[in-house]
Write a structure and sequence with these properties.
Elements (H helix, E strand, L loop, with lengths): L11 H10 L4 H8 L3 H8 L10 H23 L1
Helix pairs in contact: 1-4, 2-3
Length: 78
C-alpha cells in the first residue's frame, strides 16, 4: 500500500522498512524531522507515535521516500 496523507501513518515496521529501502539512516531522518534518533527508534518499534508537532512532517517524508522507492523499483523492472 502506498503511503499517503489520506492513508495515515504506516505501521511502525513498515515505516522503518520505507526508510531503510530509501537508504536513509535514522540519524538523517531524525535531523530532517527535527527530532532525536532515540525518539525515531521509539516510533519505529511502536513504543509511541510522533507528537502532533511531528506527525504531518513524518507522514510527508515517508510518503516521499515511498514514492521514490516505488519509482526505483519500476525503473529496475523495465
Amino acid at each position: 500500500m502506498a503511503v499517503t496523507l489520506a492513508s495515515g501513518l504506516p505501521a511502525p515496521a513498515e515505516a522503518r522498512a520505507i526508510r531503510e529501502r530509501a537508504g536513509w539512516t535514522r540519524q538523517r531522518m531524525a535531523i530532517e524531522l527535527g527530532t532525536s534518533e532515540s525518539t525515531l527508534v521509539r516510533w519505529e518499534v511502536g513504543e509511541c507515535g510522533p507528537s502532533s508537532k511531528h506527525v504531518v512532517a513524518y507522514m510527508q517524508l515517508l510518503a516521499r521516500l515511498d514514492r521514490q522507492n516505488r519509482g526505483q523499483r519500476q525503473e529496475g523492472v523495465a
